[in-house]
Every structure is written in structure tokens, then in C-alpha cells.
Design a protein that fits this description.
Layout: E1 3-11, H1 17-34, E2 37-45, H2 52-62, E3 66-71, H3 77-87, E4 92-95, H4 107-117, E5 121-126, H5 134-150, E6 159-166, H6 167-174, H7 183-190, E7 194-199, H8 213-227, H9 230-260, H10 267-300, E8 307-310
The structure holds uridine-5'-diphosphate and magnesium ion.
Uridine-5'-diphosphate (UDP) binds near residues 10, 46 and 204.
Length: about 300
């Protein structure tokens, strides 16, 4: 019996890239036909404002292996991934960007690693960040370093979402129904045996990136809060530190007063201390508030996406 690989493609304003992407997959499809494996494509139109949906529908018109889901608005790539996994029917599932930054030529190697070497998933990571702004790469590296220190879940630097996995692993991912999704962490959390392939960064084929620096920054905070509670512990540790400093200061002041008397001075330093402690307290409450906000959204149990049409 022939096997099927479902290719899930989250697409947001990708009218220019999708035709190239489709061509590239068709090439791969020929190779897979020889070993009796089918490739199906599932485009997830994430509320695109351009002609993405029309382009996909046109492909669907002449190719049975093309499927699509269209969201009622932009829900973000994470929601797209979730919807794609949910709708895919294949024995194996692979996530790919529409911009060909995830080279389809690796598919065969990935498939063989699962079939022959017994892995549950094959993931990819970029070994360099060529073509990316320097500041962005710098912050990205720092993020991964910090993340791995404060979280028990392993998050690999440079890991892309490009990953082939078994049905079993996909089901495990789908069983995590959280609203604030950080897929890179979810992969690590569900575990399974993963093989890593490395490749050089490839620049997108057409269109432009949807990730501004600010968006990425917010996404990194998302990741930290979804997979680590270290910032919450920060408040207690800062409290302990402050107590120690205060104890030392008290001893110092008492000894000084006994030895040199007590001239009325020192109010500027007092003001500074009050402002500092006040700031620290507000900061800690803020951290608490961030987690509370996330919890608030989770308890609402809102759907991760809303599908407007599909085929
Ligand atoms: N994407 C999406 N929803 C969004 C933003 C992006 O589905 O809100 C898709 C996008 O169409 C692309 C993939 O996610 O297929 C990666 O986006 P992009 O190439 O802009 O990110 P980069 O590769 O620059 O990190
Ligand atoms: Mg890209």
C-alpha cells in the first residue's frame, strides 16, 4: 500500500511565492512516485490580504493533491501549523514555509531517516544566518542561550519549523491545545527521537518577510513565558537579595552612628533607595501580570483558529 506525506504550508500574503513552491514540490513528487509515496499539499491561508487564496484555489482546480484551509482573519503562523496538522491525512507530516526557505530537496533524505533509521522526526536547523540583519541574529542567539538556561524544554538554536514527523508525533503536538503557542518549544516538550539536518540559510524566493524585529521580540517573550516560569521566581530572588543588602546596610549604619554620632544627612540616598525598591516591586508585579494575562487567555478556551472555507 502506498504511503502519503502531507506537506503543510502556512501562507500569509504569499501569492508570489506559491507558484514557485508548487513547481518545486511537483519536482519532488516525481521522485517520490518512484518509491510509491504520494505527496499532498495543504495550504493554510492565514487571512491573506492579497490573492493567495485565489492562487491556491486555482492550483486546487487542476490538482487533486492540493488542499486548502482559509482562516477568517490572520491568526498567525502557529495557528496555521495547528490547523494544518489537524487537517492532514498523511502517514507522515511535514511543515514547510511557502517562500522556499525550506529546501524541498531535503524531503527524500528526511523521509529515509524516518523509514530506515527509525527516527520519529527529522528537523532542520540553519547553521548560519546569512542575509539577516546583524542585530537580529545577535538577539536571536541571546534568546536561545537564555531560553535554554531558564527552561527545562530543549530549544535548539537556529531550528526551523521545517520538520518531517510521524503521525504519532503530530498527534502528540495536537494534544497540546494551548492558545499561546510556541511550536519550537512544543516540539521539544513532546520529545520523541529527532534527527537534525543542517543547512545554510536560503533567502526567500519572492515577496517579503512578515517578521519585523518587534514582532520577533514579542514572539521570544511568548516563548519564554510558555516554557519557563523563571521570571516568576525572579521576584522572590530579588526579594532575598534586597533583604541581604538591607541587613548589611543596617549593620553599617548602626556602627557608623555609634562611632561618629548621627548628623542629619543621607536623605538623597534614602530617596534613591525608595525609588529603586518601588521600581523593583512594580517590575515584579508586571511579570506576575504578564503570566496572569496568559492564564486569562487560556482559561477562555478560545479556538486557536477559525476556518472560513476549506477543500
Ligand atoms: N506566515 C503565516 N502567518 C503569519 C506570518 C507568516 O502563515 O502571520 C507564514 C508565511 O507565509 C511563511 C512562513 O509563515 O510561509 C514564514 O514566514 P516568513 O517567511 O515571513 O518568516 P521568515 O522566514 O522571514 O522568518
Ligand atoms: Mg521565510
Amino acid at each position: 500500500m502506498s504511503e502519503t506525506i502531507s506537506i503543510i504550508v502556512p501562507s500569509y500574503n504569499e501569492e508570489k511565492s506559491i507558484p514557485f513552491f508548487y513547481e518545486a514540490i511537483c519536482e519532488e513528487r516525481e521522485k517520490f512516485k518512484k518509491i510509491d509515496v504520494e505527496l499532498e499539499m495543504i495550504f493554510v491561508d492565514d487571512g491573506s490580504k492579497d490573492r493567495t487564496l485565489e492562487v491556491v484555489k486555482e492550483l486546487r482546480g487542476r490538482d487533486e493533491q492540493v488542499h486548502y484551509i482559509s482562516f477568517s482573519r490572520n491568526f498567525g503562523k502557529e495557528a496555521g501549523i495547528y490547523a494544518g496538522l489537524e487537517h492532514a491525512t498523511g502517514d507522515y507530516l511535514v511543515l514547510m514555509d511557502a517562500d522556499l526557505q525550506d529546501p524541498p530537496s531535503y524531503l527524500m533524505e528526511m523521509y529515509q531517516a524516518i523509514k530506515e533509521e527509525g527516527y520519529d522526526s527529522v528537523a532542520t536547523r540553519r547553521v548560519d544566518r546569512k542575509g539577516e540583519p546583524v542585530i537580529r541574529s545577535f538577539f536571536a542567539r541571546q534568546f536561545y542561550k537564555l531560553m535554554n538556561k531558564i527552561s527545562n524544554t530543549e530549544i535548539v538554536d537556529g531550528a526551523r519549523d521545517y520538520r518531517l514527523m510521524t503521525r504519532q508525533m503530530a498527534d502528540a503536538i495536537l494534544s497540546m491545545k494551548e492558545y499561546n503557542r510556541f511550536t519550537k518549544g512544543i516540539y521539544g516538550w513532546v520529545g520523541f527521537r529527532t534527527k537534525w539536518l543542517e543547512y545554510q540559510n536560503v533567502e526567500r524566493v519572492a515577496g517579503e518577510t512578515k517578521w519585523s524585529f518587534w514582532k520577533l521580540f514579542k514572539y521570544s517573550l511568548e516563548g519564554i513565558m510558555a516554557f519557563s516560569t523563571a521570571p516568576l521566581a525572579l521576584a522572590s530572588w530579588a526579594g532575598v537579595l534586597m533583604c541581604v543588602i538591607a541587613a548589611i546596610a543596617i549593620v553599617f549604619i548602626v556602627v557608623r552612628a555609634l562611632m561618629f554620632g548621627d548628623p542629619t544627612s543621607g536623605w538623597p540616598s534614602l530617596a534613591c533607595i525608595i525609588i529603586f525598591i518601588g521600581g523593583l516591586q512594580l517590575f515584579c508585579i508586571g511579570v506576575l501580570g504578564q503570566y496572569l494575562a496568559k492564564t486569562y487567555l487560556e482559561t477562555k478556551e478560545r479556538p486557536i483558529y477559525i476556518c472560513k472555507e476549506k477543500a
